Amino acid sequence: MATVLAGLQEGLRLLLSGDPYLWDIILRTGQVTGAALVVGSLLGIPLGALLGLTRFPGRRLVQTLIYTGMGLPPVLAGLAIYLLLSRNGILGPLDLPWIPKLFTPEAMVLAQVLIATPLIAGFTMAAVAGVDPDLRRQVEALGATRLQVAWAVLREARLGVLVSLVAGLGSILSEVGAVMLVGGNIEGSTRVLTTAILLETRRGNFDLAIGLGVVLLGLSFLVNLGATQLQGKGR
Amino acid sequence: MKQGARTRGQEPSRFTYHETVYLLEGVRKVYDGRCVLNIDRLEVRRGEILAVVGPSGAGKSTLLRLLNFLEPPDAGAITFQGNRIGRGPVPLRLRRQVTTVFQRPVLLSTTVAGNVAYGLRLRGMRDGRERIHAMLERLHLAHLARTSARKLSGGEAQRVALARALILRPTVLLLDEPTANLDPYNVALIEQTVQEMNREQGTTVVWVTHNIFQARRLAHRVAFLLNGQMVEVADTETFFTAPRDPRTGAFVRGEMVY
Predict the structure, then answer these.
(1) What is the pLDDT of residues A161-208, one digit of tens each?
(2) Which one of A76, A110, A152, A182 has the minimum C-beta count within 10 Å?
(3) What is the CA radius of gyration of chain B?
(4) 3-class SS at B225?
């Protein structure tokens, strides 16, 4: 118990004193997760909208793949990206400038995109499918183009889309397996909150681990607080 | 002019030139192998209020969906303002001349003013404030402009839906039983506003109703749809006093068994 309290105290001190090691990790986590969320929503929201709004051959299959992806263990996503990017992998040997190298933040972003996209697409799809079907007909009758119809439905489903973003962010903010595999937890380069907690706990640096944990918890809390506030406004 | 014509349907508005807006020929619509609409010929004239009456399931709503180009016909031809509408996509410039107010108003989750502005925004028209305000006043909605559309009563919501349609100054306004389930105040306000728009702007109106008294009050001509077929189309006076088809007479007298 004493360890925990002391750890908490020391953790808060490090945080408030602007400890460079701690803050470097916090910033990198924000960058990697933020980038992954942006890319994931750019892919996931249109994909979810498409699945929720249209019928096309193979739609069921895509839907099933997304559902599977929603339950994908992050470490498997990491393995997939690892196999894709490693020197003996699929894309790695091509050595092209736009293909990220393993053990870089870009590789971590890629793995997190793979985790977040199915979640965002799946929740968006459900939200879009939940919009009054007569709304589409009404909007069309008012002279909307197909794109304008899709936009109107997405706007009506905005709370659900927001939930999809929170779910996506929550999943990548807290996962450790994928970033560990493809990032490698390199200090000053690919170390993020979760991998740092893992390492510092193993090293016995509980104060630092707790400090990092408090930040992670705080971030998660802020994200969800923001989401519930917005939800309240939408009512 | 005959005496009492005012109570038996409207005078032709000054916009009625007997010019054809829609011409339907051999139009069929089939759902799940069942033919729900089979119209040999129907003409909608510019500037008229055409009431479409008939029992539930007669195909009235299907007809409106076809007229609004929300669905293509399975057979036959629709000519709209001289343009033949095929099975392919209908050009936006034609689609945007027509709009529908449905029986159940479906509003967007924004303010009343936001809903009324919606169609204008779709058309890229940004500065419609004056126009929106005037339209809200006209339908006694000005005090609700900033209210969330979710907080409206049924009658208010339907007036918003009508305002949202009328502000577009459509060539054709399609009404799918817009006043069913509304109280007399809202019915009167909606009827009056549509009549005014018809007179002032020459808006062609196709008004689906199963209330024959409403048809008689408002329409220049009445069309009777039964089991997907057009039994009779006649001017209002003739329709109610001297129908050609015995089934029309039975329907008008309330004797129809269906």
Answers:
(1) 998 999 999 999 999 999 999 999 999 999 999 999 999 999 999 888
(2) A76
(3) 18
(4) strand
Among B167, B52, B153, B63, residue whose Cα is nearest residue B105? B153
Distance separating alpha carbons of residues B235 and A214, to the nearest angstrom: 79
Q: Which amino acid is at A17?
A: S
DSSP A153-195: HHHHTHHHHHHHHHHHHHHHHH--HHHHHHH---TTTT--HHH
Are residues B52 and B6 in contact, defined by beta-carbon separation less than 8 angstroms? Answer: no
What structural domains does chain A harbor?
2-7+31-234 (1.10.3720.10)
- A to B CB pairs, distance under 8 Å: 49
Task: Kindly state the DSSP code that residue A217 receives in the 8-state scheme.
Answer: H
- B106 touching A (Cβ < 8 Å): yes
Give the Cα separation of B140 and B134 in Å (integer).
10
Query: Which stretches of chain B are assigned E, i.e. beta strand?
Result: 20-31, 34-45, 49-53, 75-80, 83-85, 98-101, 172-176, 204-208, 221-226, 229-235
* Chain A, nearest residue to B121 by Cα: A144
Q: What is the ipTM of this complex?
A: 0.89
